[in-house]
Design brief:
The N terminus and C terminus are likely disordered. This protein has two domains: 228 residues, no CATH class; 127 residues, no CATH class. A hairpin with a 2-residue loop joins β15 and β16. It has 384 residues and is an alpha+beta fold. The longest helix is centred in the last third of the chain and has 20 residues. α7 crosses α9. It has eleven helices and 16 strands. It is globular and about 65 Å long. The chain starts with 13 loop residues before the first strand and ends in an 11-residue tail after the last helix.
């Protein structure tokens, strides 16, 4: 990370950079040794990839989302952040899908993998994903690991949401649509009669230093007010909402509810939801060797609680049914995650809804469980 991201020691005034200024920001970050990662279009989706130019941004593209549905659509303007979360999250850079743990040569010596530290600059991080980065860091640190791994000096440019997608529910998880902390710079994109520009706020000293290298001007009171209003209004236009109840208690009491059997009849236990989730962290490991057997390597790769073998212990597989595996996933994500890590494991990005082949909706399932148990709203927990 670039150090503690605190608003106390840096300017909080808003400035404005125009569309060309955003392109210049990418150029400046690259010149400063950062590898810039941001949204771009590939394979009929908005994905995350290395950016060397602002021309790679998905200007004029939005998305239509729903349970089991994700489609690109043309926008009427040239917005570059006018879309909701795609199939990838920043997890792939902080907690790689596959990485070597060690190798052993013929002489019996163990060797740590050769790594080259990377300075990443993440451009366009949504508030929900910013929360996910913080959660993932907590989770991996609790396991004696670092979410940054070979990453050093992570620079984060948040993008506040003004147009939530059809499966977004970050407002009900208290993670968005505004990025409140944890960033170096935050942007609110505005396109109107005054042009295409980004109301920019500084979060760290490094953010202030980088921003000083890009042409900008002071934001007017009207611009900051309208930008803040657009972000606040987005909270009232979410496509989904998590039930406003004590989810931890509800899921504990719902262990034997009839709902599990019904959802299991639809769930394919494919693990898509865990692969696209920005906080799911489960892994497994495998040992591989060359044909001679003189060189052995151990690799870690993502796994899922939906995998049949994931719960295998010395006496056999613990969760053999799809019903028990779905119940494990949602109960951990919304309930026992609190006991382990002090927060919910869900940030309301909606990816698990988008990319479920049969369109299972975590908010709908939570609501059905609530109805099955006749649970009353809990104002003290805010649904968490």
């Amino acid at each position: 990370m670039t150090g503690t991201r605190s608003p106390t020691d840096v300017t909080r005034d808003h400035v404005v950079i125009d569309r060309r200024g955003l392109d210049d920001l990418i150029t400046v970050l690259s010149a400063e040794g950062y590898r810039v990662i941001g949204p771009t279009i590939r394979d009929s989706a908005i994905v995350l990839d290395t950016l060397v130019s602002g021309d790679q941004l998905p200007a004029g593209w939005g998305v239509e989302t729903g349970p089991g549905r994700y489609r690109l659509r043309r926008r009427a303007d040239a917005a570059v952040f006018g879309h909701s979360a795609g199939p990838q999250s920043w997890k792939q850079y902080l907690h790689p899908a596959r990485q070597q743990l060690w190798s052993q040569s013929q002489d019996g010596m163990f060797h740590a993998p050769a790594t080259t530290p990377v300075k990443y600059a993440f451009l366009g991080v949504r508030a929900c994903d910013l929360a996910a980065i913080g959660i993932l860091e907590t989770v991996l640190a609790a396991g004696g690991r670092s979410s940054t791994g070979p990453v050093e000096n992570l620079f984060i440019i948040a993008a506040n949401c003004t147009e939530p997608g059809g499966v977004c529910f970050c407002a009900s998880m208290n993670t968005g649509p505004e990025a409140r902390s944890g960033y170096d710079l935050s942007l609110t994109e505005r396109i109107d009669d005054d042009g295409h520009r980004f109301i920019t706020r500084v979060g760290t000293e490094e953010g202030a230093r980088i921003l000083a290298l890009v042409r900008s001007r002071q934001a007017t009171d009207r611009e900051t007010t309208e930008a803040a209003r657009a972000v606040a209004d987005a909270a009232h236009h979410m496509g989904r909402e998590m039930p406003d109840i004590n989810l931890r208690g509800m899921l504990r009491d719902a262990r034997d509810a009839d709902v599990w059997e019904d959802v299991a009849s639809r769930c394919l236990t494919c693990g898509n939801c865990t692969m696209v989730c920005p906080t799911c962290f489960c892994t497994t490991s495998e040992d591989v060797s060359d044909l001679t057997g003189d060189h052995v390597e151990r690799w870690q790769h993502w796994s899922s609680c939906f995998d049949l073998d994931y719960s295998q212990l010395h006496g056999g597989i613990v969760r053999t049914s799809g019903e028990s595996r779905y119940r494990q996933w949602i109960s951990h994500k919304l309930g026992t995650w609190h006991d382990q890590f002090g927060s919910s494991g869900c940030v309301g990005c909606g990816r698990c809804i988008d990319w479920c082949p049969v369109g299972i909706d975590i908010t709908a399932e939570a609501a059905r469980l609530t109805g099955a148990l006749n649970v009353e709203p809990d104002s003290d927990t805010g649904g968490l």
